[in-house]
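User: Please run a holo structure prediction.
Assistant: Happy to. Please share the sequence and the ligand.
User: Here you go; the ligand is magnesium ion.
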Amino acid sequence: MKLSELQTGEKAVIVRVHGHGSFRKRLIEMGFIQGKEVTVVLNAPLKDPIEYEIIGYKISLRREEAEQIDVVNEAEAREALVSDEHLQGLPEDLGERERLDRALAHLAEERNHVIRVALVGNPNCGKTSLFNIASGAHEHVGNYSGVTVDAKEGHFHHQGYEITLVDLPGTYSLSAYSPEELYVRKNLVDAMPDVVVNVVDASNIERNLYLTTQVIDMNLRTVVALNMYDELQHKGDKLDTEQLGRLLGMPVCPTVSRDGRGIPELFDTVIKVYEHSDPTLARHIHINHGVEIEKSIVRLRDLIFENEEVRSKYSTRYLAIKYLEGDRDIEKVIAKFPNREALEAARKEETERIEALLHTSPEAAIVDAKYAFIQGALAETYEKYQEEKPRRTITDRIDAIVTNKWLAFPIFLLLLWFTFWATFTIGQYPMDWIDWLVGKFGAFVGAFMKEGWLKDLIVDGIIAGVGSVLVFLPNIMILYLFISLMEDSGYMARAAFIVDKLMHRIGLHGKSFIPMVMGFGCNVPAIMATRSIESRKSRLITIAIIPFMSCAGRLPIFVLFAGAFFPHNAATALLGIYLLGVVLAILSAKALQHFVKDDDLPFVMELPPYRVPTGKAIWRHTWEKGKQYLEKMATTILLFSIVLWFLSYFPRNAEQGAGAPRLQLEDGCGPARRRGRQGTGGQHPGRDVRRGRGRRGR
Ligand code: GDP
Ligand code: MG
């Protein structure tokens, strides 16, 4: 719990101190250190400050400051005395007070050994791979940007510490342009990770370090994971990681998160940084933005510094830089300050001064200075392998074909067509087997049961109902297998690139395309994937039209309709329904264009190098989707099968008689499955409906 939550007179032991630079240092100097006892002298509700006693001194802290300190109190210690195995071994002859003190100390020590680590980095730099390999999780890895859309938590033990690892969405910077950037920033400020691991793609180091420079501004305890180190070595480049670490003021650990090399060492370093056990590892540096900009930063910072309550949460230098850049989110923070008018006036003056002197906006000048810092650091540490004549990489060669003016579209369409062909045509075989198995299983179970409503419920309601949905499992797995293959190889990013121009015509972006294709599998992850679209307009329109993409769950209904109404052209009708959805999506997008405000944000579409997808990752994604589907079947679908069966079965006519066969069998296939639920919607319960390929709908 937090120190601020303690009542007057309560005693507690300190677990850790969060918060920032000088604020944190001051607290630690005052004696707020792990393991120290603190007593509340006076904590009146709504009253600020709160008075504490620590190592014999009386100290008052503001409420915001006390919120930054984690403690354990006596109530928690009492509970632990009963439940914690460690504490049960305490000698019997100890007094009550002594036992409690030991429990307090033990709990504080134990909680101090829990470290919260947040992963930040550019999209596609390998954060999720690192997250998975360290925590044993199975999150989605993909070779294009925007795969991870929210924070995922994983837990593992390392060197006696429990580490909570948080995987965050990828961002190129920490400005306030995209929802992802805001999300990551909010997470870093509010969730207060103890250590930040900044994952840097070593094969693309210059651009990746831009984010690092912003993390430096935020003044958080950070370790750099120099990931994809294998690719850097493979190219023959050399990097002095130790020297780079010294220049950045944070340790740099080479890692290969694809196979786990360097990961244990990375977390060893994380622990060292957390424990401050090696002061040479981390130090706070300031990136020099040039004399003029620095003058402005210092002026704004001094004004911000007057507002004590933000100092615990933010680095004031970071706030000053962001405010000078014109960051809208930080403007909101500043707007709450009593001296906001002075700040606003100061910023206006400084902006004008810089524009007059440097002929550019402060924002642009700050970006330039950061890149200059990176170039300087790399010039000292990085040595590119010199080739006689530039070699064409495999990626270049593949791209020459798949993004070729004439070939791009045919290849793309061919791949899409193949995906759907495999999904539905190859998928037909396992589908038929499952269909057959379900039928046999129903008949088998039915043979053992007495005629009556219970038998009808189990055979017609449950087995047939769940079975009719189970048959689509192969379709879903095959579709996701292809989507994963395209994502992990890097082709999906090209697909977005190829369709970019077309998508622009309906007011969307190339990036909208991937979520739309995913929509054919399931609309929910598809809509979640739209988060990676930077432009708000494209994002909103994409979200609105995705439901027109026919998801796999609708297939059973389409199949039923196609079979019932177009028995001779079921396949064409099915294709027609799918196409109709796409056409409606396009028309809606065009119409919606006029209603959503424009925010034309230019942004780069990144084309990652092609990578051979790992079999493990592909299997994981495919299985993940299959599992979700199966879970739904065991819960929602099972429940509704019963409800639907119930609705169609009751009330019973007297002459029908409970348990009597209610329909005429027309052919010999799966008698059990041909009875029952289709009768809903006003039809007589006994009437059969012809279905395409002998399968029933939901
Ligand atoms: P994220 O977007 O940062 O979460 O990145 P992912 O974990 O999804 O990985 C992006 C791609 O890079 C995937 O295809 C991974 O297999 C690949 N990858 C991740 N780490 C490494 C690495 O250390 N070396 C190499 N060669 N590839 C990697
Ligand atoms: Mg990810």
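The chain has five domains: 3-111, 113-275, 291-383, 429-473+619-691, 491-609.
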